[in-house]
Design goal:
The complex is a heterodimer of chains A (about 15) and B (about 220). By secondary structure, chain A is mostly helical. Chain A contains one helix and no strands. In chain A, about 5% of the residues are buried. Chain B is built from ten helices and two strands; from the N terminus they run H-H-H-E-E-H-H-H-H-H-H-H. The model of chain B has no long low-confidence stretch (mean pLDDT about 95). The chains are: A mainly alpha (about 15), B mainly alpha (about 220). The interface of A and B includes residues 1, 4, 6, 10 and 15 of A.
Chain lengths: ~15, ~220
């Protein structure tokens, strides 16, 4: 999943 | 009701007025727009009832499969009021000539086929928001960990569509089914779009932002 860092980050953000 | 509230605001393309019109400019504008829309669509997905309860890995898998269908369905819905034009953004409407210039005539004609279908049906906003959520939940990722949880999400959304149609369109008991039957064309069109933008990416002449690239690569 390292390849999909931005998607991962955006899903983890609370908004 | 929750999906109507979650529906994102319109977006602006803001093409650079100092750059002369060209295929590269049009594609750069569209790729920038897509990147910003994707950020918005990821926040939107988190408001679909049941979606945040999926594992993070499954949320990612569904978005990696379904993101282009969501982008296209939004363009399609925005374009319903116009004739043979695609509303990529409130300030970025492509007609046949602009599609030709951007090398997007075939792709845009495929998207217009979807517009035509939904125009004939008189697609309503309520139906659009549920259909978009169904497209995501039904994006057929091969990487799903908990397929029962994804099935439950599909069932809830499918149920919402059926309830809406039973109340608002009792005269057409097959309307929910008709809407679901438009999804293969959406899938097919999204696959074409992904393929097209993958080849643009390989050309390397159009700058692309990271999220858009990341999701294109997930499809490659």
């Amino acid at each position: 999943k390292e390849k999909h860092k931005i998607l991962h980050q955006l899903l983890q953000n609370s908004t | 009701s929750l999906l109507l509230v979650a529906e994102p605001e319109g977006i602006f393309a803001m093409p650079d007025p100092t750059v002369p019109e060209s295929d590269i400019k049009a594609l750069t504008t569209l790729c920038d727009l897509a990147d910003r829309e994707l950020v918005v669509n990821i926040s939107w997905a988190k408001h679909i009832p049941g979606f945040p309860s999926l594992s993070l890995a499954d949320q990612m898998s569904l978005l990696q499969s379904g993101w282009m269908e969501i982008l296209i369905l939004r363009v399609v819905f925005r374009s319903l009021a116009l004739e043979d034009k695609l509303v990529y953004a409130e300030d970025y409407i492509m007609d046949e000539e602009q599609s030709k210039l951007a090398g997007l005539l075939d792709l845009n004609n495929a998207i217009l086929q979807l517009v035509k279908k939904y125009k004939t049906m008189g697609l309503e906003k309520e139906e659009f928001v549920v259909l978009k959520a169904i497209a995501l939940a039904n994006s057929d990722s091969m990487q799903i960990e908990d397929s029962e949880a994804v099935q439950r999400l599909q069932d809830v959304l499918h149920g919402a569509l059926q309830d809406y149609e039973a109340t608002r369109h009792p005269e057409d008991p097959r309307r929910a089914g008709k809407l679901i039957m438009t999804l293969p064309l959406l899938r097919q069109t999204a696959a074409r779009a992904v393929q097209h933008f993958c080849s643009i990416k390989q050309d390397g002449r159009v700058p692309m932002h990271k999220l858009f690239l990341e999701l294109l690569e997930a499809k490659a």
